[in-house]
Design brief:
By secondary structure, the protein is an alpha+beta fold. It has eleven helices and 13 strands. The chain is globular. InterPro entries: Prot-tyrosine_phosphatase-like (IPR029021), Protein-Tyr_Phosphatase (IPR050348), PTP_cat (IPR000242), Tyr_Pase_cat (IPR003595), Tyr_Pase_dom (IPR000387).
């Protein structure tokens, strides 16, 4: 069968082992992931400490992709723009996006499967299988979030399906899945406290399956309720403790109690302000208390992004620019699995910073998008930016910024004249 990659990109295709169809290649990749994960799981904490001593988060320099574009796909992929009337066409066309996304898949497969002393591979793990929503979605090992123990209680340090991601602002951001049960919800809030999280960005929507609220819900109040009635409605909280497992993994999130076990200090999440609601978004603020430490954490919920799908370019652009206002804030970003919508947003936030810094233009934006998504796959795992339409959303949004900047520049130059 002919290669999915253009003929002039043979350096990559020669390094990939053969598979009759792309789907077979992907299946082998995930089969490899699962087998490797199951073998590594028992010694996973040891493997992580090998890469990251004292359970500290990795340094930013270790989050950078160790391969150049030439290493990944050869030197010609981003030079073969179709010409029209002698002028290069840089518009992100469907065929172009398809070729780039297929190259992205091939590079990811190569990084995961190759174990070479000359190159740094993308090592993966499946943290704590009971907490993993999907056994075919693995974490990057080097950036996996490891929780610290709590007052002598041996919590599941590798419980979270979470990774540190570098969005070029030197803040501590985490990409993760939606908590699968109340035990993981406890670990989720502990992760937020231990990493000094300021904002949780929730990209799930109403139709996502098995997403039980991990946060306290406001009680129903009348539209014309008094201030006292509204304050009472916010007097709802969720209390967690560690060291006691829930009787049922799918019980509603509440305070576990067991007289036969010692219970660790409570972690209490309380609704601090009245949520603001619209059809597409909502914002809530929670007061989180643990071990005499108190922190206010904002939860920003985008309601319109369906699983495996993409929002419109305008909606994505608006979301990115709104979140870009929160400088010097630590984010936890999640959707259901924490790799599709989550990493698409992560890519958009990083690319917006690069664009604002003047690093992106018409001639280089496709290469920078490709490298950014590949870097985030290296940090979060091979499934990051899960579908071609999500990759296309990123590409078209960045192109929109480039075109708007060119128009503004032209307008300003005319005014000066």
């Amino acid at each position: 069968m002919a290669s999915r990659v253009p003929p002039n990109l043979t350096p990559l295709t020669e390094r990939l082992d053969s598979a009759d169809e792309p789907s077979q290649r992907d299946e082998k990749l995930f089969e490899h992931d699962v087998n490797q994960c199951s073998e590594q799981n028992e010694s996973h904490a040891g493997l992580v400490k090998y890469h990251r001593q004292n359970s500290e988060e990795p340094e930013f320099k270790s989050l950078q992709l160790p391969l150049t574009t030439e290493d990944m796909v050869g030197s010609d992929l981003f030079k073969n723009y179709k010409t029209s009337g002698g002028a290069k066409n840089f518009e992100p066309t469907q065929p172009r996006i398809k070729v780039l996304f297929e190259n992205l898949t091939d590079v990811t497969s190569y990084l995961v499967r190759q174990a070479s002393g000359e190159r740094e591979q993308l090592e993966v793990c499946l943290p704590n299988p009971p907490f993993a929503r999907f056994t075919d979605i693995s974490c990057s090992l080097k950036t996996h979030v490891i929780l610290n123990s709590v007052d002598g209680f041996d919590i599941k340090q590798n419980a979270m399906h979470s990774n540190y991601v570098d969005l070029l602002d030197q803040q501590k951001h985490i990409a993760t899945q939606y908590p699968i049960n109340k035990e993981e919800a406890a670990h989720f809030w502990l992760m937020a406290m231990q990493n000094n999280t300021d904002i949780i960005i929730d990209l799930t929507q109403k139709g996502d399956k098995d997403c039980v609220p991990y946060y306290p819900l406001p009680k129903n109040v009348k539209a014309k309720a008094t201030r006292k009635e509204r304050e009472k409605a916010m007097d709802s909280q969720v209390a967690f403790s560690f060291g006691v497992k829930p009787k049922n993994a799918h019980d509603e999130i509440d305070q576990p109690s067991n007289k036969d076990h010692k219970v660790s200090p409570e972690l209490i999440v309380k609704l601090a302000t009245e949520p603001t609601e619209s059809k597409v978004r909502s914002t809530s603020v929670y007061k989180v208390t643990f071990n005499r430490e108190v922190k206010l954490i904002r939860r920003f919920h985008c309601k319109i992004w369906r699983d495996h799908g993409a929002v419109s370019t305008e909606e994505f652009d608006e979301l990115i620019k709104e979140l870009a206002k929160y400088k010097y804030q630590n984010f936890i970003i999640h959707c259901r699995a924490g790799v599709g919508r989550t990493m698409t947003l992560c890519a958009g936030l990083e690319l917006h910073r690069k664009f604002e810094n003047g690093e992106i233009n018409r001639e280089n934006y496709q290469e920078i998008v490709f490298k950014t998504v590949m870097k985030l796959r290296y940090q979060r795992g091979p499934s990051s930016v899960q579908t071609q339409n999500q990759f296309e959303l990123i590409m078209r949004t960045v192109y929109l910024w480039v075109v708007e900047a060119e128009k503004n520049s032209l307008t300003n130059s005319k005014k000066k004249k």
